[in-house]
Amino acid sequence: MNGGVLLAIAIVGEVVATSFLRASNGFTELVPTLVVVIGYAITFYFFSLALQTIPVGIGYAIWSGTGIVLIALIAYFVHGQTLDLPAMIGMGLILSGVLVINLFSKSAAH
Fold first, then answer.
1. 9 vs 3: CA distance, rounded Å
2. What are the transmembrane regions (predicted)?
3. Cα-flanking dihedrals φ and ψ of residue 48, to 5°?
4. What is the pLDDT along the chain (110 residues), one digit of tens a residue?
5. What are phi and psi of 78, to 5 degrees?
6. pTM to 2 decimal places
């Protein structure tokens, strides 16, 4: 599997795990806690595999930036949490940075 696919799996695992943190109620609810633990295990396993072909700085930037944006969208649609204009602009800049790395950086190709 190529590094981009492995990184995408890691991102999905992180987003799922983080989405269930609130429902785990401080790790007192069994099923959400299991989703968190399994999700992060999947995340770090696939992230470690992705880093065999993607530079760590580039991989982490893509992983964290994409995760931030996806979690904010889930928080909006699932929990009704809204963002003010500066937060939306900041996330837009993060997303722009991820796109620039993926589309134009030669470092991401290593």
1. 10
2. 33-51, 58-79, 85-104
3. -65, -35
4. 899 999 999 999 999 999 999 999 999 999 999 999 999 999 999 999 999 999 898 899 899 989 998 999 999 999 899 989 998 899 899 889 888 887 887 775 55
5. -90, -40
6. 0.85
How many domains is the chain partitioned into structurally? 1
Taking alpha carbons only, the member of 10, 9, 18, 63 closest to residue 36 is 18
- Token pair listed for 42: 């999947």
Residue appearing with tokens 């993607």: 54
Cβ atoms of residues 15 and 74 within 8 Å: yes
Q: Are 79 and 53 in contact (CB under 8 A)?
A: no
Nearest CA among 71, 21, 9 for reference residue 45:
9
